[in-house]
Amino acid sequence: MQTPLKEKYAKNGDAALITLKAEGHIGENISCKIETGLRISEAGLHPATGGSGLQLCSGDMLLESLVACAGVTLNAVATSLEINLEEAIVKAEGDIDFRGTLGISKDVPVGFKEIRLIFEIKTNESDEKIQALLKLTERYCVVYQTLINSVKMDAKIINV
Questions:
Q1: pTM score, two decimals?
Q2: Using CA atoms, how far apart are residues 56 and 53, in angstroms rounded to an integer?
Q3: Mapping DSSP to helix (H, G, I), strand (E, B) and coil, where does residue 120 land?
Q4: How far, CA to CA in Å, does 117 sit from each of 32, 51, 158?
Q5: First vs last C-alpha separation in the chain
Q6: Residues 123/81, Cβ–Cβ less than 8 Å
Q7: Rounded CA gap, 62 and 116, in Å?
Q8: If you average pLDDT over residues 144-154, what whole number do you get?
């Protein structure tokens, strides 16, 4: 499935540069509606910061994006390496000290202090193949690499 794309991008590197976009519109009760390819999701405050818990928390969404990307990548790498995964569960856990987000303590950073990505797999493959699976999954997972490499970011406000 990926072979024709790999060949195309090897011949024309510019064809491989794609800009992904996301858009959201702020809503009532401190919320933001995010348009995805399949539906509209509504994000709001986490209950630890005063939210109702009825809306998605952006921190949860970040972890969900990591799980989704890592799961797809794990599956693709396993297929490429001909590793039979009888079962695979991908989990992400992240620790946040909300004193930073709420401005209670300037000594506490805003954001995750630590994120753990856990793969629970059932396979009969050797430890060597399992370690190769992990190494390549880490290497090719876009969200994982973005998080560990602290991508350059820019923010601006446009008054329309």
A1: 0.84
A2: 7
A3: strand
A4: 27, 26, 36
A5: 43
A6: no
A7: 12
A8: 93
pLDDT digits (tens, 9 = 90+) for 76-117: 999 999 999 999 999 999 999 999 989 998 899 999 999 999
Is residue 141 within 8 A of residue 148, CB to CB? The reply is no
**CB contact at 8 A, 119 and 144:** no
CA separation (Å) from 28 to 10, 32, 43, 44, 55? 47, 8, 11, 10, 12
Interacting residues of 152 by C-beta distance below 8 A, sequence separation 6+: none
Q: Which two tokens stand for residue 130?
A: 């399992």
Q: Where are the beta strands (DSSP E) in the chain?
A: 23-27, 31-35, 40-44, 56-57, 87-96, 112-122
